[in-house]
């Protein structure tokens, strides 16, 4: 049987690799589990990498005078610059990679469906967009496969039939 190089894929660490979500949980993902034998996964949790613990108070994206900011409402901490610096440093040092599977709706890893709020405290949702880490990835790696687990689940049934 021929051996093929495994693709290198950056994955949100919470998708079955570690209990690093804000609430201390892991999200089991059947597709990620099935791909483990075929892919070299490179797990990362951007929120933990910027020093947030587990469990932690949630973060959210808010619009402040038209500028998007990443904040933690409970503490009032503005994490925007810290997350941007981490994303740039991580991506600068990443080396060759074939794709990304990120957590949907996450203020850090979301690609297109992250809620954008009008303010810190239960402000209404005024739109949706990418998270800060996910947005940096899509800006830099537009030619690669960059997807979130929610969109992959739409095709999950067909994909799973392809893997033992």
Describe the overall structure.
The chain has 164 residues and is α/β, with parallel strands linked by helices. The chain has helices at residues 30-35, 46-49, 80-93, 132-140, 149-154, 156-161, and strands at 8-12, 40-44, 60-64, 67-72, 77-78, 99-102, 114-117, 125-129, 145-148. The chain has one domain (8-159). The two termini are 16 Å apart.
How would you describe this structure in keywords?
single chain; 164 residues; alpha/beta; 5-stranded mixed sheet; 4-stranded parallel sheet; 9 strands; globular
Number-wise, the strands total 9
Rg from Cα: 16 Å
Element string (H = helix, E = strand): EHEHEEEHEEEHEHH
Name the strands of the widest sheet in spatial order: 5-4-3-7-8
Largest sheet: number of strands, sense, barrel closure:
5 strands, mixed
The total number of structural domains is 1
The coarse silhouette is globular
Q: Beta-sheet strand percentage?
A: 15-25%
Low-confidence stretches: 156-161
Number of helices: 6
Which structural class do you get from the secondary structure elements? alpha/beta
Question: How is the topology of this model organized?
Answer:
Layout lengths: L7 E5 L17 H6 L4 E5 L1 H4 L10 E5 L2 E6 L4 E2 L1 H14 L5 E4 L11 E4 L7 E5 L2 H9 L4 E4 H6 L1 H6 L3
Parallel strand pairs: 1-2, 1-6, 3-7, 6-9
Antiparallel strand pairs: 3-4, 4-5, 7-8
